[in-house]
């Protein structure tokens, strides 16, 4: 991105009016998008955190009827509750006073029904490096993966008492969000 190939942005600027201007080179430098960012508080208005997959097909805002500034969105491969996800979640809850968490996995996930050995081999073949030390957190069962991640949150003593936890599976074919817990 940003190398002038037309695929990225060459300039991102924050103006004195608090609007974020993205000016890609392929449009001749004209503004195509502005988002008022300084008008929003850093803490989510709905006190909500969503943990979900990085899959580009997932529009979390539309899925949960959210607006920018409503929730913290934590995304990673598989939407798994990793140590780094916990780091962000703990800060969100204790610094930004969030009190509700949605864990959302989805159908058609690249980590569903693959193995660590398969993924480690693929990375090794592509790079010539040993990736055996990486746990990519693949899973065989969507419901079990959601339940396991929600349980990890439920039993973590660093999270505030009384938070609300939800687990769901998003069907990428129908656009339906199915509650698991």
UniProtKB/TrEMBL annotation:
GO molecular function, one term: carbonate dehydratase activity
InterPro entries: Carbonic_anhydrase, Carbonic_anhydrase_sf
Keyword Metal-binding: yes
Pfam families tied to this protein: Pro_CA
Cofactor(s) it depends on: Zn(2+)
Keywords for this protein: Metal-binding, Zinc
Record family assignment: Belongs to the beta-class carbonic anhydrase family.
Protein name, as recorded: Unannotated protein
Organism per entry: freshwater metagenome
């Amino acid at each position: 991105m940003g190398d002038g190939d037309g695929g990225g942005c060459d300039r991102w600027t924050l103006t004195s009016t608090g609007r974020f201007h993205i000016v890609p080179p392929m449009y001749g430098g004209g503004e195509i998008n502005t988002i008022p960012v300084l008008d929003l508080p850093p803490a989510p208005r709905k006190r909500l955190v969503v943990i979900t997959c990085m899959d580009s097909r997932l529009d979390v805002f539309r899925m949960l009827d959210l607006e920018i500034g409503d929730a913290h969105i934590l995304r990673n491969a598989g939407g798994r509750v990793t140590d780094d996800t916990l780091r962000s979640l703990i800060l969100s809850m204790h610094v930004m006073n969030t009190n509700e968490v949605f864990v959302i996995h989805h159908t058609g996930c690249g980590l569903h029904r693959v193995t660590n050995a398969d993924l480690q081999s693929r990375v090794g073949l592509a790079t010539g490096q040993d990736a055996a030390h990486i746990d990519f957190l693949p899973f065989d069962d969507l419901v079990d993966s959601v339940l396991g991640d929600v349980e990890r949150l439920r039993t973590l003593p660093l999270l505030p008492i009384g938070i609300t936890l939800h687990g769901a599976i998003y069907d990428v074919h129908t656009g339906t969000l199915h509650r698991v817990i």
